Amino acid sequence: MIAAVDETHDPALQSWVESANDPATDFPIQNLPFGRFRRADDMDWRIGVAIGDQVLDLRRARLLETYDMNRLMRLLPEVRQALRLAISQGLRRDSPQESVFRDALVPQSRVRMGLPCEIGDYTDFYTGIHHATTVGKLFRPDNPLLPNYKWVPIGYHGRASTINASPNTFKRPLGQRMPPGATQPTLAPSARLDYELEVGLIIGRPNPQGEPIRMKDAEDHLFGVVLLNDWSARDIQAWEYQPLGPFLSKNFASTISPWIVTMEALAPFRRPFSRPEGDPQPLPYLDSPGNRERGAIDMGLEVWIQTSAMREAGHAGDRLSRSNFTDAYWTAAQLVAHHTVNGCSLSNGDLFGSGTLSGPMPEQAGSLLELTHGGVQPLRLSNGEMRSFLHDGDAIVLRGRCEQGGFRSIGFGECAGTVQPALDPGNL
């Protein structure tokens, strides 16, 4: 079932953690996202909840007996909701638990954040229809969407070992490229490195192999949502992706935000899901009354760039685009139902990527491939620099925020990554 609005979403709630009452914070008391952190003297990851500019250590606050996030995520929905209520009550202004909880707080500035859970498998979908259409036009102007797109959630299996928590840095990838007019490929650093604005879905409860998850039960298996940048090497991809799809062009780095915003926290921001007039309706196994009524998630998304020159000048960076998770052609529940309809078993901690989420307008594109029309129309940044694709030293920051009249807005924290120079292929 889709989580319902309850007392933890009351916009009048205030916290004794004063930074949580700032209207600009991503982490008011109505949010309460989960993550894993370490203090400087810690050997093991601890489970924390973000509240304002602080982290609440759940074990020190006597709310958990474990530091195993994956074990927590397996809890039944009603148990998770009870834990959320207990955290909310303890953080509210005038709570009798304030002294215990205060001893369990640590400033976010004094901890290192890690991956929010152990990620075993990663599946990347292609739910952004505006992205799919724009990119399709670059290669197939008369037929940008293939015939299956509006019937089946397209996806491929990625690589979990190179998923890192924000903020992270990574080396520009090496790979085979076929230069224009050449007769054989060369091994070289990617010259067309790109970002992809995505949303990540975290699986909480697994299903046995051979037992599909039905639409009415799909959200019971979802723990929450993160921001995801699935970096892409477009030139490597163009050479390798036929006939089997992405490989080295996609598995060198992915960055996710370190806080999981739970499905319960997102309850006020659910929206009806419907298809544009004239489009086919989903097959019955991808349809349900609940999904039609509240399947979409209203989540505003932004992409920012800060170049090396901007950093040196103290420039905060430029916003490149804005879009929304409601631009996705398939909902979170539909991805879960489709992934398992063949009997595939999901594991606790699996990550689903939404695929690039672009809006309907050109300036709402979720990648440089779209914004620069395949690299032929470079962007001019506010400091005069030009970009067709990413340069070494460029940092990309993804931000997300849910807003709805009558409720406190909540955020996801930053998803930030910086490109470092590639290895010298001559040394391989």
CATH topology annotation of the largest domain: Fumarylacetoacetate hydrolase, domain 2
What coarse outline follows from CA principal-axis ratios?
A: globular
Find the structural class using helix and strand composition: alpha+beta
Largest sheet: 8 strands, mixed
| Rg (C-alpha, Å) | 22 Å
CATH-defined superfamily of the largest domain: Fumarylacetoacetase-like, C-terminal domain
Report the top-level CATH class of the largest domain: Alpha Beta
N- and C-termini, Cα separation? 52 Å
Strand content: 25-35%
Mean pLDDT across the residues is 96
Can you give a write-up of this model?
- The protein is 16% helix and 25% strand.
- It has helices at 69-73, 77-91, 98-102, 129-139, 234-240, 289-294, 308-312, 332-340, 368-371, and strands at 34-38, 46-51, 54-57, 105-107, 112-113, 122-125, 155-157, 163-165, 168-171, 174-177, 186-189, 193-194, 197-203, 222-229, 232-233, 254-256, 261-262, 270-271, 296-297, 300-306, 318-324, 351-353, 379-380, 386-387, 395-402, 410-411, 415-420.
- It has nine helices and 27 strands.
- It has 428 residues and is of the alpha+beta class.
- It folds into two domains: 7-113, SH3 type barrels, CATH 2.30.30.230; 122-427, Fumarylacetoacetate hydrolase, domain 2, CATH 3.90.850.10.
